[in-house]
Amino acid sequence: MKIGILTFHHSNYNYGAVLQAFSIYKLIESLGYESYIINYTPEPQTIRKKMAAWIVALLGLEFRKFRKKNIPRILHKTNSFEDLKKLNNMLDGFIVGSDQVWRYRSDTQSMRRYYLDFAGEKKLKIAYAASFGTDNWEGEENISQQIKQLLQRFDAISVREKSGINICQSVFGIKTTAVLDPTLLLNPAYFHEMADRKPMLKQKSSRMAYMLLDDSKTREKIFREVAKRNKLKFVRIHGIKLLSKKGFFLFKSVNFWLSNIKNAEIVVTDSFHCVAFSILFQKKFICLANAHRGVTRIENLLKLLGLQSRLISDLNHIDEKVLKTEIDYKHVEDILLAEKNKSLEFLRESLSKMGKH
Questions:
Q1: Can you give the pTM of this predicted structure?
Q2: What is the pLDDT, as a whole number, of residue 35?
């Protein structure tokens, strides 16, 4: 059986995006299905955005290399509804997720693709760990009705956050369940092996791995001073910033990024997936609340694992005791194991509906 996965695989500047795409791809494969990444890449609407996308793609060479090596079954690139409809001729079912695939955006045409509007009526349709990104649905009544009709076509729906359960119920009248992000569901051995391909040079001092998506000179200065006080080597792991105003980075390899997290004494971030891999590698970490990018997903994960103290909302009141406090990862692992079993059962049961179509 051939399963097409629609997710944000195409990001050329986001470690979490490519790693979650790899994770769901491998999960479906491990369950005995032939998995394919649907290569849907919405085209930028303006010349300025096209230029920016071209530059980011150029700087993100390492992400393309990672996808080519680790996700061999990526279909031909498409950005049209008609091309997506043709996939019904070769695929038996479709999965959308994970990441913020269901977040509302003004380009409602491409947004509807992530609600599988192109999938045939008789095709299996599953949402796995789909995220709305925020606590609230921002769509107006007309688009909400369209999305409701598309969701009613799904055979199984799961979301990544409990807030997503509330949105599905209150806005769309759909019952669903919360499951783990695929990076936390896949066997950690995959990521340990990737990280170990880029062993860090042995340093006399321990490391603070620093990655803020919304960085600033002020924030960097604060954490450089924190690192110095705690005798930690300050290491930026996001890449080399070329143009601060545009946010253009020359990115290092995915393996290098993973290795920096694995070999850090502590991780400082505002990224959901950087938090996820800090947990996976059992690191001490702190996370800055980032309302612009959506803090709900991080709050949900940390609350689930009893790690709320690791979330910081005020830079002026950083409790450095939290930096030094060890995390009881035995307790975290017990919770994760139960959630993994529940998430895997959702996937198995949902995919088993294939034969009923």
A1: 0.92
A2: 96
